[in-house]
Specification:
Number of strands: 7
Largest sheet: 7 strands, mixed
Structural class: alpha/beta
Order of helices and strands: HHEEEHEHHEHEEH
Distance between the termini: 43 Å
Shape: globular
Strand content: 15-25%
Strand order of the largest sheet: 1-7-6-3-4-5-2
Radius of gyration: 15 Å
Length: 190
């Protein structure tokens, strides 16, 4: 099932092409050189938020002046689960410096589409940062996703600057160190 998830293809264009344009990074050690590209991040859509105060929802527009990690995942994806500890690590390391992690749970299966199952898994996995339940894949389509997991770094001006598709440490890719360094770079920008 992991192979099917990594190879899942959705509509290809804007944000899907973004990963290739931005870094050329992907799952594997043969990552290309980092390329900085500033493309406006699509706004988040939906009202089903976890780990935010009742009745509240987040927007990327409200995050202007701060750095945001947006990651697409689904709880049944082993590749996604392997990335979760890194997001928690980034949250602990950088949250006091203005970083916010936002998970977008976009399901592949009927089991993953059930919000009660998402709530259960978010608790089970110890996820404390905000998670948007994207049960109808509205954000998946808006961001024109192709793969689980996918990670985007949004700068202080609301632009997607860097991306990673797949496991951060797949076959020793070193994605955690690369993305940690890029997060720090974005936090240091004015």
């Amino acid at each position: 099932m992991g192979w099917r998830r990594r190879c899942h293809r959705a509509a290809a264009a804007t944000v899907a092409a973004l990963a290739g344009l931005l870094l050329g990074l992907g799952p594997g050690p043969a990552a290309a050189e980092t390329k900085a590209v500033a493309i406006p991040a699509p706004e988040l859509r939906g009202n089903s938020w976890l780990n935010v105060p009742p009745g509240e929802k987040l927007s990327l527009a409200s995050r202007k002046g701060k750095v945001t990690v947006v990651h697409f995942w689904t709880f049944g994806c082993i590749n996604c689960k392997r990335n979760l500890p890194f997001y928690n690590e980034w949250q602990k390391k950088f949250s006091t410096k203005g970083l916010e992690i936002i998970g977008i749970h976009s399901p592949e299966t009927d089991d993953e589409r059930d919000p009660a199952n998402v709530v259960k898994k978010v608790k089970e996995y110890g996820i404390t940062y905000p998670v948007l339940i994207d049960e109808n894949s509205v954000n998946w389509k808006t961001w024109q996703q192709r793969y689980w997991p996918a990670v985007y770094l949004v700068d202080k001006q609301g632009r997607v600057r860097f991306a990673w598709e797949g496991e951060l440490e797949y076959q020793g890719a070193g994605g955690n160190a690369k993305m940690t360094q890029l997060i720090q770079t974005l936090l240091n920008e004015r």
